[in-house]
Specification:
- The protein has 3 helices and 11 strands; from the N terminus they run ββββββββαααβββ.
- With about 150 residues, the chain is of the alpha+beta class.
- Strands 1-11-6-5-4 form a 5-stranded antiparallel sheet, with no helix packed on it. A 4-stranded antiparallel sheet has the order 7-10-9-8. Strands 2-3 form a two-stranded antiparallel sheet.
- The longest helix is centred in the last third of the chain and has 10 residues.
- It is elongated and about 55 Å long.
- The model has no long low-confidence stretch (mean pLDDT about 90).
């Protein structure tokens, strides 16, 4: 087994999704959240018959909020995309309105457009984690990094 690489910044094209690293068809093997440090890590594994396996970990920093549906095995990623807040808030408006009275993700907003402005002011980004099956949702964070490891 090779060593894990150093953490590197992910490259995401707004129109095409995550380019580096490629996570399409990766299995999500673990999800860990450190609430005090504001980090969320997705551990993933790419497997193909008669080929080397590769582990790719995605680490989100400065996490304000996240939400995932269908956390189960198997969970297979389609892609991780950068979304505008308008797109994310439109898709998940029901969730933000439902959780607003509980102070999630912030206590300081009354309307969805107001929340969008606050998120932009804080220089956060919206990451849409799309699953083929299983885990599917989003992360609102400052940035996302990755590291890889080839498994023989």
């Amino acid at each position: 087994m090779d060593e894990l690489s150093e953490w590197q910044e992910c490259q995401i094209d707004p129109s095409r999704g995550m380019e580096v690293p490629a996570v399409h068809d990766n299995y999500v093997t673990a999800l860990s959240i450190d609430l005090e440090q504001g980090t969320l890590i997705l551990n993933t594994l790419y497997q193909e018959m008669n080929q080397r396996e590769e582990q790719t970990d995605l680490r989100f920093f400065g996490v304000l909020a996240h939400h995932f549906n269908d956390i189960m095995a198997p969970s297979i990623l389609f892609d991780v995309e950068y979304n505008t807040f308008q797109t994310l808030l439109n898709e998940w408006e029901w969730l933000f309105l439902k959780r607003k009275k509980h102070g999630w993700p912030l206590r300081s907003y009354e309307t969805i457009p107001e929340l969008e402005n606050v998120l932009k002011e804080r220089d956060l980004k919206a990451y849409r984690v799309r699953g083929i099956c299983g885990l599917d949702g989003f992360v609102i964070a400052e940035k996302v990094e990755y590291r890889t490891q080839a498994i023989h």
